[in-house]
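User: Hi! I have a protein structure encoded as tokens and I'd like to know what sequence might fold into it. I'm fairly new to this, so please keep things simple.
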């Protein structure tokens, strides 16, 4: 595939139709014309290809659900899980998957440089002339959208025309590698091969010597389904024993990774952190860590946004807040999937209300949005650090205490008004006048400046929120020196990436951080009476 090729224009419309074999009827063409009539397919689907001829594909195939990973993977045809549609959204164009009635979008978890699918659109592309251009510089020239619907036989430049450029491309097939899309488009007579007969047929048409007799474009159906990487695929073993009297079947539980699989090169540092920091500071002792919250909510986390600010928030921004915290929570918990009895492959994160100083800052307020603006108390900001430009408000909004898990987690018999789903676990606390970098976090929530949160909606500084969420799991800061009582393990952090919990040393959840989270879960999961579900 030539990377300088232009792709045909696609509209923002999306189809949810299942893709099996992608076909297009023969396009009528004038024998004395080298151009194809102005045909525009308003449901254009694409595969997203990289320079290694791999395709952006959702792990798990047609069984994938929200939060599933997506990455470049081999393909031998098209399927719902590797076909994408451009749809206009705020800031550019999102990629909507053909999977599951088109409800999922490709979403970048920037801090981890990984892609997942989400029900919330995220702008990944902009339109530049007749080509699609990635918004993220590191991925530019690495992603090539290749149309797989509305294809025209012989149109190897995908510009809705048959001309000398298509002929030149077909002549190269003996010297370059063609992908399955090009092979289907170049196979003019539909005999399953691209050879001299197809070349002659295209040349004859372009010279006006013959009328078009091309067959319809048929792309093969993809048979390659990537499975989730990282942890081993869970298996179930069945043993059957037969006696004269009866047949007994024994089923063993699915395999999971446990502490026996913990990397030896990480073990010393993890033991040191647990013994010298976490156990000493008792940061996991209180049974309201995010581990506890997720288990108590059966795989869910509910937030209230505490908007200690007078800056306006649009409806689209409010919707983006939920995706922001979902990405950040799952950026951590994805490490727990398949690990030592952890039950949740994906954590459902909900924003269940906004606590505000002034309701009017919530622009285009919807009838189903829950707003708390009556519980406002005096606030002493004298101990806060200011950004030196804005004044920190002297008032603080709150949600009803009777709905707060933080206020009631010690009472295991407590009944929330409206039921368990009506509770909120943590605050996402935004303060006007706070420094744009830095914040604080714990099992009560995460507090940053309002501007910091706005920046994160644009993909900037998400690792700061992930750092504060780390405290909610019981992770500690590493402010001191090597081996110090407030410091980091002697010899440093293994793996070469430091730790997101050592401020300024890493801008993502590192491999060691993920293993440390697994270690912590294994250390607390069997505490008597702690996890009752």
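Assistant: Happy to help. Inverse folding works backwards from shape to sequence: for each of the 533 positions I chose a residue that suits the local structure. Here it is:
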């Amino acid at each position: 595939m030539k990377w300088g090729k232009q792709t045909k224009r696609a509209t923002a419309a999306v189809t949810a139709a299942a893709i099996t074999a992608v076909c297009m009827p023969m396009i009528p063409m004038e024998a004395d014309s080298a151009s194809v009539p102005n045909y525009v397919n308003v449901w254009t689907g694409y595969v997203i290809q990289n320079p290694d001829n791999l395709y952006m594909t959702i792990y798990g195939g047609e069984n994938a659900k929200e939060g599933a990973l997506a990455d470049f993977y081999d393909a031998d045809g098209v399927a719902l899980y590797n076909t994408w549609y451009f749809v206009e959204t705020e800031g550019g164009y999102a990629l909507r998957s053909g999977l599951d009635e088109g409800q999922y979008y490709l979403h970048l978890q920037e801090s981890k440089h990984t892609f997942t699918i989400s029900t919330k659109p995220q702008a990944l592309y902009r339109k530049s002339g007749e080509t699609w251009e990635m918004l993220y510089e590191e991925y530019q020239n690495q992603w090539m959208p290749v149309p797989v619907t509305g294809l025209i036989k012989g149109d190897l430049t995908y510009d809705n025309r048959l001309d000398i450029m298509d002929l030149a491309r077909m002549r190269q097939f003996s010297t370059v590698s063609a992908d399955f899309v090009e092979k289907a488009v170049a196979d003019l007579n539909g005999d399953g091969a691209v050879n001299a007969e197809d070349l002659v047929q295209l040349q004859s048409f372009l010279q006006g010597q013959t009328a078009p007799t091309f067959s319809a474009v048929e792309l093969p159906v993809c048979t390659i389904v990537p499975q989730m990487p990282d942890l081993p695929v869970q298996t179930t073993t069945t043993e059957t024993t037969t006696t004269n009297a009866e047949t007994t079947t024994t089923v063993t539980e699915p395999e999971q990774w446990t502490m026996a699989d913990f990397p030896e090169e990480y073990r010393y540092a993890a033991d040191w952190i647990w013994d010298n920091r976490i156990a000493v500071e008792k940061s996991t002792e209180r049974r309201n860590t995010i581990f506890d919250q997720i288990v108590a909510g059966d795989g869910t986390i509910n937030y209230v946004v505490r908007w200690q600010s007078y800056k306006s928030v649009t409806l689209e921004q409010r919707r983006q807040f939920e995706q922001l915290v979902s990405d950040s929570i799952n950026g951590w918990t994805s490490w727990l999937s398949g690990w030592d009895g952890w039950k949740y492959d994906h954590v459902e994160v909900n924003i269940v209300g906004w606590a505000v100083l002034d309701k009017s800052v919530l622009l285009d307020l919807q009838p189903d949005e829950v707003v708390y603006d009556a519980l406002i108390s005096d606030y002493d900001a004298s101990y806060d650090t200011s950004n030196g430009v804005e004044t920190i408000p002297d008032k603080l909004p709150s949600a009803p205490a009777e709905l707060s898990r933080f206020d009631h987690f010690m009472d295991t018999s407590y009944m929330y008004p409206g039921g368990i789903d009506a509770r909120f676990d943590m605050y996402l606390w935004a303060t006007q006048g706070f420094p744009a970098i830095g914040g604080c976090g714990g099992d009560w929530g995460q507090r940053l400046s309002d501007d910091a949160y706005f920046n994160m909606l644009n993909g900037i500084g998400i690792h700061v929120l992930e750092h504060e969420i780390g405290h909610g799991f019981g992770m500690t800061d590493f402010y001191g020196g090597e081996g110090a009582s407030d410091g980091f393990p002697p010899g440093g952090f293994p793996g070469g990436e430091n730790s997101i919990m050592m401020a300024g040393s890493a801008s993502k959840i590192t491999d060691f951080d993920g293993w440390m989270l697994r270690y912590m879960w294994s250390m607390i999961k069997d505490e008597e009476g702690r996890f009752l579900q």
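A useful reference point when you look it over: The mean pLDDT is 81. Feel free to ask if any position seems puzzling.
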